[in-house]
Amino acid sequence: MLLRDTHSPTGIHPVSQSKAAWRAMRAGRPLQVLGRPRMAFTTSKAATFPSTQSLEDPLTTTQDHSSAKHSTEVEREVEQETYDWAKQWYPLAFVEDLDPKVPHPVELLGERLVLWRDADKQWRCFQDKCPHRLAPLSEGRIEPSDGTLMCSYHGWRFDGEGKCTDIPQSLDAKANAAACSNPRSCAISHPTQVLQGKVWVFGEGGSRAFIDSAAVKPALLEDLEDTYPPREKNGGEDCFFAGGHYARDLPYAWSTLMENLADPSHVNFSHHNVVGDRTVDQTMKIVSKEPSKTVPSIKDTFKMAVTSFDDKARDYQTFDMEFVAPCLVKWGIPPWGVGIKHGYMPMYMIPTGPGRSKILWCMLLPTSSMPAPAKLMQRLTPKWLQHISITPQVLDGDTGLLHGQEVAVSKEAEKDLNRLYYMPAQADRFVAAYRKWLAGRGGGGPLPMPETSELQAQPQLLDRYSQHTQNCPSCSRAVQVFTALRIVTAALAAVCAMGIASTLAASHPVLGLPAQFAAGGIVLAGAWLWLSKTIQKYYYVPHTHAHA
Length: 548
Known about the structure:
alpha+beta; Rieske Iron-sulfur Protein; 4-stranded antiparallel sheet; PaO; Rieske domain-containing protein
């Protein structure tokens, strides 16, 4: 249900607008947003699509000979070389989520790293180990006097290039200079750049990595400029975040996350009453398309058009899905509502470690897509509210299913998932194409799959605090403020209770005073309950599909 807001020109609260966008994008329900209903991506089983061949090979279709030719070329490349996951760029964080005054621990391809901003206000990335005795540099501090990164174990300092600038244990200045000039004193640095509002890090570190990284293009949104705030290329419009942006660590593998994001047909079921509706019949036609020639590697990119049919509107709707190795899945947003001409939903998937991944999500719409007051309301909605609304519920709905899937797969003797899975429907075409690429040229994936033999408890799987809150400055600050307010409301409620007792015990009680204390206590109790419920959303919210 949409939250109504009398102050919004659309009559819809900004958080509900985000929810509406999710529904229209991912679930396929007719939706009234900024005007008359437009069909989204839902189709009826009675819908009649143009004739298609039986889905024996999920990669080819008689409707698109150029795409079949492209697939054949990719298969030839697979025989020649394997994708090098380490020699690629990965966006590890939104810049807005990073505090420049402290170092930030991150993980990429099973390696612990540290992000920090140096004296020149450049974001840097080192391997998270001091060359002295391998203590974590992420536990260090950024020295205000010179902007160096100081190891908290023995005080060694490093500049933005990784060069050691001071070893406090040296006997004198000459010994200090000699020790610092030794290459063994340097931190191991990874190439880093800031593009489209994210900090990108190269998968390999060391001096050679700076040469290799210069020849590799990151998987950017090719429709947008490299700068931030986002703006379309070729004189296009400025874009704004519909529903903000969201980052979260996930307790399942990169390959599992990618499979999930490449699957539009799961939304109505996994996310019923959040952004989907399981009561809606859904079929889809998915056809391969030729990828853009501007992507980093055509042979490591595949693009498909998803066509759906709304039985009520009797109208077709098509949107594009694209995978750009090593980390981007992009959903195109087709026209919907009044004024929404197009948009973008990029989802970046980071292989953090074996059986672990991270997602960076956002939805971008051109500024002309909504009236100025509606955009203002969106921008005024605080991040701490956006981050406990729709997106975490969507991820919670998937996590238990994907974890259970990994446990089941780990116990199977057959490890070729295209053989293990039974995928007869067109809705699985993108997943089948991805799995075929991953098993071939992808070399099985960026990291080995761990042996996942036991199911984890839901509070551990859906631990929002460790997966998001503690790393998000807006949410962690909100928890601190709400916790303090909860203490204050409890104290004031106790004062009201004592006031009632003392007034009633008085020999001449003031008329009406007990009722005033009681009313105040009720209001404070309600505030305490609201604060408690809100705080809990930053830690863990149970999710049961059977009760959704």
